[in-house]
Amino acid sequence: MFHSGDKLIFETILPIPDIFSAKRILCVQPHYDDNDIAAGGTFAQLAKNGTEVIYLTVTDDLMGVVDTSLSPDAAAQSLTQDQLVAGKIIGVKQQILLNYPDAGVYDYFSLRRDLLKYIHMLQPDFVFTCDPWLTYEAHRDHIQTGLAVAEAVLFSSLPRIASSDLKVDEAYTGHSIHGIAFYYSREPNQIVDITSTWEKKILAVRSYATQIPSEDADQLVMALQFKSQQICAGKDFQYGEPLKVLNPKALHCGL
Predict the structure, then answer these.
(1) Residue 253 — left, alpha, or beta (φ > 0 → left; ψ -120 to 50 → alpha)?
(2) Which of 158, 160, 142, 147 is nearest to 109 (CA)?
(3) Buried b (16+ CB within 10 A) or exposed e, 131-170
(4) 108, exposed or middle or buried, with CB in 10 Å at 0-12, 13-18, 19+?
(5) Rounded to 5 degrees, what are φ and ψ at 57?
(6) d(Cα 26, Cα 53) in Å, to the nearest integer?
(7) How far is 210 from 198, CA to CA, in rounded Å?
(8) Domain ranges of the chain
(9) Which H helix or E strand runs over 27?
(10) Residue 71 CB neighbour total at 10 angstroms
């Protein structure tokens, strides 16, 4: 719901799904730290409540490694170690790496097929990703990831749209995806109270040292704290994360 002049516009007639009803969530990020920077407190709370939290990272993240003396293999190992540490803090059950080239050339439809494969395999009842419609978003990895996830969720029940693994498709008998949630969204419709998991989020964010040196991490934490408190103005909790949560049917034709 949003305002346009004096009119109130309803984006969808469908109710907002409850993310905390999810038993298994698939959290798809373009880069290895996006899930935790944007929604780590939410994912930590879900994990604490018993939800199975799975992270899928689209790119290899090598372009963001600040130490140019590291070889590609050494940088990749360091990135993986960062993810394992952060994932343990949040409560992530599984990490999946697609290793598309960070800030590089890769095919959108190949990515969508890979995402369909893991949706069919894992059968999450909720999927999270970055909002590809964020105003002024310039990073193509974010735009491609968000759009590919949205289409994969929308198309996951259509048997004629193949994933990247025909055996997985043949074994897939269907399941219900109750909702899709976008972080980094300009128009959130939900603020999640993460006061109880704020410290976990910050510890996880600080774990990404291969890309975020300690002095940069301090600045990032300050920015996250300011932003979180800003969006919680008028609320009865201190820290929050904004999400755009939709029924998957709302992803086509605005129903």
Answers:
(1) left
(2) 147
(3) bbbbeebeeebbbbbbbbbbbbbbbbeeeeeebbbeebbe
(4) middle
(5) -110, 125
(6) 6
(7) 22
(8) 22-249
(9) strand 24-29
(10) 8
Residue 158 corresponds to which amino acid?
Answer: L
pLDDT value, residue 10: 66
pLDDT reading at 116 higher than 80: yes
* Integer Cα distance of 112 and 153 in angstroms: 10
Determine if the pTM surpasses 0.90: yes
CA distances from residue 123 to 23, 27, 239 in whole angstroms, order as listed? 10, 12, 31
pLDDT in tens, 219-250: 999 999 999 989 999 999 999 999 999 999 99
Q: What is the CATH number of domain 22-249?
A: 3.40.50.10320
Q: How confident is the model at residue 66 (pLDDT cuts 50, 70, 90)?
A: confident
Q: What band does 254 get if pLDDT is binned at 50, 70 and 90? A: confident
